Amino acid sequence: MNIPYLITEAVTALLAVTGNVFICMAVLLDKKLRTVTNYFLVSLATADTLVGAVGIPCAIMLDIGVPQCSYYSCMMMICNLILFTMASVYGLLAIAVERYISILRPFQYASLMTTKKSLLFILACWVLALLTSLIPLMGWHKPFTPDDDCLFDSLMYDSYMVYFIFFACMLGPLCVMFFLYARIFMEIKHQIRWIVRWEVEASRRERRRIVIWKELQTAISLFIVLFCFVLCWFPLQILNAVRLFRPTCDIPDDLILAAVILSHLNSVINPVVYVFRMRSFRKAFEKIYSGVCYSASVVQLAESSAAHSFDIKGRKCKIRTTPLPGR
Predict the structure, then answer these.
(1) What is the pLDDT of residue 327?
(2) Are 239 and 259 in contact (CB under 8 A)?
(3) How far is CA 193 from CA 15, 28, 103, 213, 238, in A?
(4) Are 100 and 184 in contact (CB under 8 A)?
């Protein structure tokens, strides 16, 4: 049993759940944050929360090996890992499409990206992720015997992880996302030049400049989220490809575990990016943090006041039994 790996995964799970639950609660409690873009971010945060709450415990058990585990229990743990990963990929793709429509099709945005349509889009991403994760359950896996321990590598084919998950379900959507963000940044650059060259009225020019600046900052923040996903997940996928195409290459177990931890750290990074890069989430964080501190100070003050009053009541007071003077 690899104790450092278990401790690192446990800390990662705790941070992932805490940070992403905050993102979901911020959008739920603050009406100003209930925008179409943030609905997609909540979907992504939900996937990251499930990675910490369910995915990482499953990954730990699949690495240690669960003895006398039934076929369906073992397969469901594996499918959960794939489900949350694919939900993140399709969620990032949905965010890129939403930003593309917002920047390049601003006049059609209100009709194309209503709250109802965006929620249906999010639901479609989760259904597609679920179907993708259930493919091993349909037969694309190694033979399983009840006497075997439930281990990820002993049950999953590298061909499935590389050809289907990496090449088809990851690289394909990621290429589309990078293309969309390239078009977004090119359009923002074009609009900035247009404002500088053709907008004569100073007040209108300033208003348009502020709008474009906000859109640029949002696009940069979401692109950073995409870049972090690639940075965290590609090492593990590349190791899977090396094992498939170079089976004689001996990859150290510690290197594989480090790549697994790095992939899970992606669920911790996203909330940090939201808070430090997006002013609306930063203000929500400050508001919630100040509210928690205020509540804690009120409770502490109330406890100290109660203790003081109890001390007064507990003191012994002399009772006068003689009449007061003059009576």
Answers:
(1) 41
(2) yes
(3) 42, 38, 15, 13, 41
(4) yes
The answer for 69, left when phi > 0, alpha when psi is -120 to 50, beta otherwise, is beta
- Which pLDDT does position 310 carry in this prediction? 47
Q: Check residue 210 and give its pLDDT.
A: 82
User: Which residues 6+ apart lie within 8 Å of 186 measured at CB?
Assistant: none
Write the CB contacts of 190 (distance below 8 Å, at least 6 apart in sequence).
none
Q: State yes or no: pLDDT of 207 exceeds 80.
A: no
Q: Which two tokens stand for residue 42?
A: 């909540």
**Closest C-alpha among 275, 222, 221, 287 to residue 31:** 287
Summarised one tens digit per residue, pLDDT across range 295-307 is: 666 666 666 665 5
Q: What is the 3-state secondary structure (H, E, C) of 180-217?
A: HHHHHHHHHHHHHHHHHHHCCCHHHHHHHHHHHHHHHH
Pick from 128, 138, 135: nearest CA to 161: 135
Taking only the tens place, the pLDDT of each residue in 141-182 is 988 877 778 888 888 999 999 999 999 999 999 999 999 999
pLDDT band at residue 318 using 50, 70 and 90 as cut-offs:
very low
Quickly state the pLDDT bin for 192 (edges 50, 70, 90). Answer: confident
| Cβ proximity of 83 and 284 under 8 Å | no
